[in-house]
Write a structure and sequence with these properties.
Layout: H1 2-29, H2 36-39, H3 44-77, H4 80-90, H5 95-128, H6 136-168, H7 172-199, E1 202-204, H8 208-220, E2 228-231, E3 242-245, E4 252-256, H9 257-262, H10 265-280, H11 283-305, H12 309-314, H13 318-324, H14 328-341, H15 343-371, H16 375-389, H17 397-403, H18 409-419
The structure holds zinc ion (ZN).
Zinc ion (ZN) binds at residues 274, 278, 361, 364.
Length: 420
């Protein structure tokens, strides 16, 4: 019991400390001189907005993490987890379904504990800063759809794991690993055509002139593009973004509609060049490969961990384990516990993954400049993106290490200048 509470508390304290450092660093640096090229876009008023917005988001983060950590600790400390497991074990259904029931109930509790923060963010914080445009109907629809989708996906994964555990004994992790890798590859194909359209409308880019410029550029860069789309992101928020998604027939570039309206053609082309860079340099594939290696290691560790009775004693499930053994319901709770115990490992992995991702961002910027050599347009797009999204200009270096998949604006601009 103490083990799991200790791990949860450690994760909570480490992440809160990091956020606290981050806001303090911004406050201390906000008035330091900015490079001349961007000073005019970030006046006193803008800087104050950035400080307020970052502070407000950080405070919300404290609250929501406190709540979700407290809920999980209560689940264990008050003996609710064993009760749920016993309840599922008593259900007159197949053992696989008993395990599924435990897993879904525990995940549902976790989901519910995140609702207050989500509501506050979408209907208060993000509205105050003029970002959120979401209606209650859209919000509710989003929740229902994502609950359903993640329920189905988790259910499929869990069923696979459960069957492998029964069929293969200690070697289940190897088959589970294969399943996870196939699953994530499949998602790249499926997400843009099956999942994303459930949340947004995708239409071919309306601006014909821009579309032709983009197709022209893709052709020159020898980038097989199945389509250029714009997405009605503005029905939720005015934050800007663009991304590249899919493979083969589903490969596409998607711009948020808010972005198409507010950026010049040249700026959008440099963003497009950046996205082509990710593909040219096989970044998506490499990231999936890296994540796959890590998930293999984690699954192996989980498989070793779950066969030792002491682990069940350490998390307060010893009596229960003696009572029902490694039954369907027990597999459900064991996988849930493994996921929680590995949280701190994720914290240790994230610096590496983020470092890799930031490296790829620099590489893609460089690629974009090589086919579309206007540093001014590229910088213009990046500055506008940061300015409109009220991005933190001075994140704490340690916070960047743990949380930034993209380089902070000033570092990114500097890299573009240093290149010449
Ligand atoms: Zn990128």
């Amino acid at each position: 019991m103490n083990l799991i509470i200790g791990i949860l508390a450690f994760g909570y304290l480490a992440s809160s400390l990091l956020s606290w450092l981050n806001v303090g660093y911004l406050r201390a640096n906000i008035n330091s001189a900015l490079p001349e090229s961007i000073a005019s876009q970030f006046d006193q008023q803008k800087k104050k907005q950035i400080l307020d917005y970052t502070g407000a988001k950080t405070r919300l983060g404290y609250w929501s993490e406190s709540l979700s950590t407290a809920v999980v600790i209560t689940l264990f400390a008050a003996g609710i987890v064993p009760q749920i497991t016993l309840w599922a074990d008593g259900l007159k259904i197949a053992p696989l379904l008993q395990g599924l029931a435990v897993m879904l109930v525990l995940l549902l509790i976790g989901y519910l504990s995140g609702i207050p923060a989500s509501l506050y963010s979408d209907f208060n914080l993000e509205k105050r800063y003029g970002f959120s445009t979401i209606t209650a109907g859209t919000w509710l629809g989003d929740q229902m759809k994502s609950l359903l989708i993640s329920g189905i996906l988790m259910g499929l994964l869990f069923s696979g794991f459960y069957l492998f555990i029964n069929w293969l004994g200690n070697w289940w992790w190897l088959a589970a690993w294969g399943l996870v890798v196939i699953f994530s590859l499949l998602m790249i194909f499926i997400a843009p055509v099956l999942l994303m359209p459930l949340f947004n409308k995708f239409v071919p880019l309306e601006d014909e002139e821009l579309k032709n410029k983009i197709l022209d550029m893709a052709k020159k860069a020898d980038f097989p593009l199945a389509g250029v789309f714009q997405m009605d992101a503005s029905k939720r928020s005015t934050h800007d973004n663009a991304f590249f998604t899919g493979m083969g027939q589903t490969r596409r570039i998607v711009f948020y509609d808010t972005m198409v309206r507010n950026y010049s053609h040249q700026e959008l082309l440099s963003v497009m060049g950046h996205e082509i860079g990710h593909w040219k340099k096989k970044h998506v594939f490499r990231l999936i490969l890296t994540v796959s290696v890590f998930s293999g290691i984690l699954l192996f560790l989980a498989s070793r961990m779950l066969i030792h009775p002491w682990i069940y004693n350490a998390i307060g499930l010893g009596d229960l384990f003696g009572q029902i053994g490694f039954s369907g319901a027990m597999v459900g709770v064991a996988l849930y516990v493994a996921a929680i115990l590995f949280e701190p490992l994720n914290l240790l992995l994230s610096p590496f993954m983020n470092w890799l991702s930031r490296r790829y961002e620099y590489q893609s910027d460089a690629y974009s400049l090589s086919i579309n050599p206007s540093a001014a347009d590229m910088k213009g797009a990046l500055i506008k993106l940061s300015q409109k999204n009220l991005s933190n200009l001075f994140p704490h270096p340690l916070y960047v290490v743990f949380h930034y998949s993209h380089p902070p604006l000033l570092a990114r601009l500097k890299a573009i200048d240093d290149r010449k």
